[in-house]
Amino acid sequence: xxxxxxxxxxxxxxxxxxxxxxxxxxxxxxxxxxxxxxxxxxxxxxxxxxxxxxxxxxxxxxxxxxxxxxxxxxxxxxxxxxxxxxxxxxxxxxxxxxxxxxxxxxxxxxxxxxxxxxxxxxxxxxxxxxxxxxxxxxxxxxxxxxxxxxxxxxxxxxxxxxxxxxxxxxxxxxxxxxxxxxxxxxxxxxxxxxxxxxxxxxxxxxxxxxxxxxxxxxxxxxxxxxxxxxxxxxxxxxxxxxxxxxxxxxxxxxxxxxxxxxxxxxxxxxxxxxxxxxxxxxxxxxxxxxxxxxxxxxxxxxxxxxxxxxxxxxxxxxx
Length: 319
Known about the structure:
about 325 residues, alpha+beta, six-stranded mixed beta sheet, 5 helices, globular
């Protein structure tokens, strides 16, 4: 990583991370809680054609510049948006939110992956799981890569269905250059294959028919003449956080620059079958160059994407 040095993500100020999951159902929630007094200035980039999201316009430069209190990543497809209800309740109980004069209204963004085909489709993240993820953030603040939280039901390489896919999960990485720090958290549930951008090595993705190695999702895509329903079962969702101070418009640009990591690691990416989304959040006051920050964010996201697949055991999808 050259001049960019890795550090423990828990050592970065301004936010805490929590997870909750139901292993028997193969679904879960990951929450990023920002400091009560400051929140985070957020931007967003949506490059996939099928996102499942909540309050994403809060991160648009066209809306009021109010700090976001939490960003939620979850499984459950659109059903999983219920997790934010629990996050809202937790935040209200702990005094977070925009003061309207009558009540504090927590500002929460959320995106979901489709994991209903992994184990059980009838159990999805709910308010109780969102609340539990907040409690985990408060008590533990452990940022772990692997089959945990929103990544517990993630898979990749699903162009021929989940039977030939590879297991994926949640990936995290934090990098610093001088005083500038960034962190990346991502759930990789892509239609495509995952590769190491440095050498092109395929790390996970579509299996060949014998299950002894990998096939190529791009080549498979070229043979498909019409849209299949399985195309709706993918999404890579992530959050990048910096201690650099930027405007809301600049945070949207930084989210877009981070998307380069998706393009370098996921093949194919950003299709109409994916709901690919990246939130970018500023939690600090370090004066930093936007180009430097965007490149560093993309590098951290690359590492997080690779860890999402290398930190899990590729066990059979069905049990």
